[in-house]
Amino acid sequence: MQKIFKKYTIIIISIAVLSILVINFFLSAKSLEKQQFNTFSVKIGQVIQTMERNQSELESITENLDEDYLTRAKAAAYVVEKNPSVLESVEEIQNLAELLNVDELHVSDSAGIIAYSSVPRYIGLDFHGGKQMRGFLPILESDAEDEYVIQEAQPNTAEGKMMKYVGVSRKGIKGIVQVGLEPVRQLEAQEKNTYDYIFSRFPTEQGEEFFAIDTKDGSVIGYTEGMEAADEAQTYSVSSLIKYEDGGYWKDDNGEKRYIVTRMYDHVLIGASISEAVLYQPFWRNILLTFLYLALVEVIAVILLNYLVKQKVVSGIHHILEDLSHITKGDLDTKVEVGGNPEFQDLSDGINTMVNSIVRTTDRISKIIDIAEIPLAAFEYQEDMKDVFVTSRLNELLDLPKEEVERISRSPGQFLEMIRTIMKSPIEGEPDVFCIHDKKYIRIHLSVDDGHYLGAVLDATKEVLDKRRMFYENNHDQLTGLSRYAYFKYQASQWMEQMEKDEICAAVMMDLDEFKRINDTYGHDVGDKYLESFAALLKGLPQEHCLVSRRSGDEFCIFICGFQDISEIQKILKELWRKLREEEAVITQDVIRKIRASGGVAYARGQSRLLEDLLLEADQALYEVKRENKGLFKEYDADKCQEA
Predict the structure, then answer these.
(1) Do 385 and 412 meet the contact criterion of CB atoms below 8 Å apart?
(2) DSSP state, 84?
(3) Where are the beta strands (DSSP E) in 374-451?
(4) Count of beta carbons in the 10 Å neighbourhood of residue 579
(5) How high is the mean pLDDT in each 10-residue block of the chain (644 residues)?
């Protein structure tokens, strides 16, 4: 009853909260976009006002400087006219330039050649010689004595240095008097009159970008991050942005959605944009806070309403459910005791009786397994259970003290981690058999279904040891302990498949010399000891590089790999034959003989050959050494066997 009431209360209040949130979302989003439009409009207007103010300042500075520079040029012409001796030395001209407070002073002849200058290296320059200097030729071409030319600041012809020059006619004779100054104030004013300069000092909020595009050629002439970053920024184009005078969303080259506002001013498109994510960051924070406030109101309302309908019956049911929860989690010692009315008492007694029956059943199963002496144990765990149920023989199978298993079973996480750790490393060929230690193996069957773990553990020690013993006996020679030939070829083939391209391997076929005479003369028991002595030498070869097998009778074979140079293999074989020359086998009490053997060797690189072909070549090399000179080993050659 209480749950039903709480359910419908939560549904109704939640619908009301969501409705408020949706309405607030749309109204706030529209308000946010309108506010951002107004902000961008004001800031773009400020940019335009700054540009107009800077332009007015530049025009005023230029006009004043032009008048000032023209006055200085005329003063220089007057001094030259009244005192021609000032031109007699560079020092005098420099003094005059310093007196007039100009950086350069030049005087040309009637042909337009600089004859006198405060900068000696400029003497001899022709006013016909460069675009900047040719700008003063109208003075020479005019007959008016008051002719003058005022140039804008630009690189001069001589050195490409940024200068402002003013020239006037010489008085009395043809020629040009020219003064030059570095236009620092004018250049500073020109720099301020650029969008790039204005944007670099314009206050912006996080995520905002301002840009200016020349509509004549489509070039970006101003960008918040500076002109160096303009080329790497998203592509702003007039055609795609001119339509956003009323604001709107636009995707940049990276697919990021941005809110953008633009305005046209004097053939320049000025715009401002901000990332949608940044724009809506405070918006989402406000929405989240609103949601939290409403959710808090909802929680308080539900708690108050729920408290009003809570009664003793509901409390009793909750108490029973709580006890049942402890029982389902494995705490079978829990007793359900709820009074208040006969129905609750009968329900509590029934639950307690059922739990006791379950406990007795699990105890009986464990006792039956123990009586039958079956090497079997089981465990069960359901998620949220307090303990793991285990049968009595699990500690024996896991080779752990009984107290340790009881302790771990009370910690389900630790118990399951122990089982998973054991099951990480199954033995080869048996995916469900695991090694506890060298003399203990178990088989684990584990079923996991929706958080329910059910496992059975069996003793597999005898089964594993029997299989390994049978495998060893089937694949190893009983007398020498070496691999049988079939197993040897299987192992060698596996090694060859794992070889690198530049790795070298070798097959060696060996045969004991005069073994038949020893058997015939001293008997098979002595012959067996002779074979065992030889096998002991082969077992001494490095096992990480060598496989050794008894092929049949007195025939043996070796497979060697893991080297990049044949000389490494030859070194192993030479060492083996050296030991053969020194090793002695006791034939009888009075007879001691050295072990003699002949061998044939064949090489292969990488996986270029089949093992059968390699063994056949080694066998042919053995035949050659047995025919020519016993007691040595020879390497196979298609044309001729080379003695090693």
Answers:
(1) yes
(2) G
(3) 376-382, 389-390, 433-437, 440-449
(4) 12
(5) 71 84 80 83 82 75 82 90 88 90 91 92 90 91 88 88 91 90 72 71 76 79 67 63 81 79 85 80 80 82 71 61 62 64 68 64 60 72 78 80 84 86 85 84 86 85 85 89 94 92 93 87 86 91 94 93 93 93 76 85 87 93 89 78 42
DSSP-derived 3-state class of residue 404: helix
Which residue spans within 465-524 are E strands per DSSP?
Answer: 483-484, 504-512
The DSSP line for 365-395 is HHHHHHHTT-SEEEEEEETT-SS-EE-TTHH
Domains in the chain, please, with CATH? Answer: 374-464 (3.30.450), 476-643 (3.30.70.270)
Q: 426, 548, 402: which is closest to 482 by C-alpha?
A: 548
Which string of b and e fits 109-134 if b means at least 16 CB within 10 Å? eeebebebbbbeebeebebeeeebbe
- pLDDT for the residue 329: 55
- Secondary structure class of 596 (helix, strand, coil): coil
d(CA 409, CA 337): 28
Q: Is the dihedral of CA 607, 613, 617, 619 positive or negative?
A: positive
pLDDT of residue 323: 64
pLDDT at 644: 41
Rounded to whole angstroms, how far apart are CA atoms 2 and 418? 43
Of 600, 598, 607, 603, the C-alpha closest to 496 is: 607
Phi-psi region of 330 (alpha: psi -120 to 50; beta: other; left: phi over 0): left
Tell me the C-alpha distance between 406 and 421, whole Å.
18
| Predicted local distance difference test score (pLDDT) of residue 603 | 94
- Answer yes or no: pTM beyond 0.70: no
Reference 225, options 273, 181, 283, 156; nearest CA is 273
Distance in angstroms (rounded) separating the CA atoms of residues 507 and 555 = 13
For residues 38 and 68, is the Cβ–Cβ distance under 8 A? Answer: no
- Residue 289, class by beta-carbon neighbours within 10 Å (0-12 exposed, 13-18 middle, 19+ buried)? exposed
Compute how many other C-beta atoms are within 10 angstroms of the C-beta atom of residue 539. 13
Residue 491 CA to residue 197 CA, distance in Å, equals: 79
Contact 157, 132 (CB under 8 A): yes
Nearest Cα neighbor of 277 from 190, 336, 208, 187 is 208
Going 472 to 478 to 484 to 488, the CA torsion angle's sign is positive
The three-class DSSP label of residue 303 is helix
